[in-house]
From TrEMBL:
GO cellular component, one term: trans-Golgi network
Annotated PANTHER family: DENN DOMAIN-CONTAINING PROTEIN 5A, PINSTRIPE, ISOFORM A
Transmembrane segments: none
GO molecular function: guanyl-nucleotide exchange factor activity; small GTPase binding
Cross-referenced SMART domains: DENN (SM00799), uDENN (SM00800)
GO biological process terms, semicolon-separated: retrograde transport, endosome to Golgi
Name of protein: DEN5A protein
Pfam families listed in its UniProt record: DENN, uDENN
UniProt keyword annotations, A-Z: Guanine-nucleotide releasing factor
Domain of life of the source: Eukaryota
Length: 284
């Protein structure tokens, strides 16, 4: 039986520099997009512990749900704010395990990956020129394109958005907690503080490994009807578990439902639930 830990796994997903850039088939192959707008395969780079007997690690499911859109690349000109999301893995027996993922961007230090991205841009630009270069005897087309040499400023600005000699390349990376219960707020704080410790110029009070060990092995699940307070990297983290006589645990802000759907849609959704209509939610 499970020993009642707060978290079962700490997972890191991202770019495998040995494998290189592989198109993410699950996200759809759209080679018309510029290379920075394409998605590439992400992989589970590490997990701690290796395995727990009461919650076998599903590498394919965790890898896909941690980074459902695959790897994303950006340059210093793009917004690189961290993004948080949660997911649920439901097994064949109906049991559930919960995942909480923080995706951020870090600089690509591999020269091979940077060169591969540059090569993809050269190939993309060459294909674009072949498809869109106007006939040499069509003066009107030449003037509208800027010139007849295929080197218009607008074209270069649009498609040469990564230059290995000028730009800094960033790639998405993900840290994730796999837990037996859905303590969303606490897990989000843990991951945000870990990310802050990695990106801060000042080292954290203790080595990062000690915080990860603490959350995996020393922080228990709070008993039903009790709250739990434990130390994060930069401050305390609190979570509360409802008693058996209360409503089930729902640790998500209702405000976000109204922000995403709007008041009218929420009222309509609630009405459909009360009338026991079938409801289908479609997400991008």
């Amino acid at each position: 039986s499970a020993p009642g830990r707060f978290a079962d796994y700490f997972v890191i997903c991202g770019l495998d520099t040995e494998t290189g850039l592989e198109p993410d088939e699950l996200s759809g192959e759209n080679f018309e997009q510029t290379p920075l707008r394409r998605t590439f395969k992400s992989k589970v780079l590490a997990r701690y512990p290796e395995n727990v007997e009461w919650n076998p690690f599903d590498q394919d499911a965790v890898g896909m749900l941690c980074m459902p859109k695959g790897l994303a690349f950006k340059t210093q000109a793009d917004c690189r704010e961290p993004q948080f999301h949660s997911f649920i893995i439901t097994r064949e027996d109906g049991s559930r395990t919960f995942g909480f993922s923080l995706t951020f961007f870090e600089e690509v230090t591999s020269k091979q990956i940077c060169s591969a991205m540059q090569t993809l841009y050269h190939m993309h630009n060459a294909e674009y020129d072949i498809l869109h270069t106007p006939p040499t005897n069509d003066k009107e087309s030449c003037s509208s394109a800027g010139d007849c040499n295929g080197t218009s400023v607008s074209k270069l600005q649009r498609f040469n958005s990564y230059d290995i000699s000028r730009d800094t390349l960033y790639v998405s990376k993900c840290i994730c907690l796999i837990t037996p219960m859905s303590f969303m707020k606490a897990c989000k704080k843990v991951l945000e503080q870990l990310h802050q410790a990695v990106t801060s110029p000042q080292p954290p009070p203790l080595p990062l490994e000690s915080y990860i060990y603490n959350i995996l092995y020393e922080v228990p699940l709070p008993p039903a009807g009790r709250s739990l307070k434990f130390s994060g990297v930069y401050g305390p983290i609190i979570c509360q578990r409802p008693s058996t006589s209360e409503l089930p645990l729902f640790d998500f802000p209702v405000k976000e439902v109204f922000e995403l759907l709007g008041v009218e849609n929420v009222v309509q959704l609630f009405t459909c639930a009360l009338l026991e209509f079938q409801i289908l939610l479609y997400s991008q």
